[in-house]
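Contributing new records

If you add data, match the layout below exactly. Sequence lines come first and carry their own label; structure lines follow with theirs. Keep one chain per record. Anything else will be rejected by the validation script.
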Amino acid sequence: MAATATIRDLRNRFPTIKKLVEAEGEVVVTDQGTPAYRLTRYSSPDLKSPAPKDYLKRLRIHQPRPLSAAAAKALHDVNRGDR
C-alpha cells in the first residue's frame, strides 16, 4: 500500500513528503479524507529524434506538377503588372 498524505501535509511538510516519495515510490494525496492525487517520481521519457521532414514531398502536395516555362512567364507578367 502506498503512503498517504494530506494536502495540508504537502503545504506544511513538503520535504517529509518528498522523502516518502523517494522511499515508497508513490504517495497518495487525500483531499478531506478522499484519495485525490498520486505523487510519483518523474522519469524522463525516451527521447527519440523525430523523423526528418521531407520538404520536397510537402511541396509536391501543394504543387503536384511544375509550371511550364510559358505558364511561369505568364504568371510573372501578371504579377509584375505595369512596372
